[in-house]
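hey so u asked for the seq, here:
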Amino acid sequence: MTMPLSSEQLEYGALLSLDFSKIQQVVCSGDILPVVVQHVDTRDVLILAYTNRDAFEKSLADKIAVFWSTSRKALWVKGATSGDYLDLIDVRVNCEQNALLYLVRPRTGGVCHTKDAGGTSHATCFYRQIDLDTQVLINVFEAR
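ran it, structure tokens below
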């Protein structure tokens, strides 16, 4: 049995350790939908999050991205603590009406709760890629 990774190892390390049990947390969170969050200008995918009816209605009313935190079991106003608010520009619904796409414009350059080497929030939560030969994680922005 392997030891669980620390937050530091998980978020910044090169070891691939996918959380295939995450969906269990999501299922136990009640009535929710997945939300793909995409930058309206660059089309970069920023976050995969979840919403419930309250978070969805608050997003529409306030025109900012609000999610349901499956780990904290609470509304999550993206940016309330970090300042990295996401202004809601457009909302798309998939064909089966069981997933959403939020097109957003970040108010700051950062989006993710993780930080780059300079201490700035990463511009997207998808800042690493898997090297297909070694299956090691590579920081996309450092590799450029």
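The chain has four helices and eight strands. Strands lie at 33-39, 45-51, 66-69, 74-77, 86-93, 100-106, 128-130, 137-139.
lmk if thats what u needed
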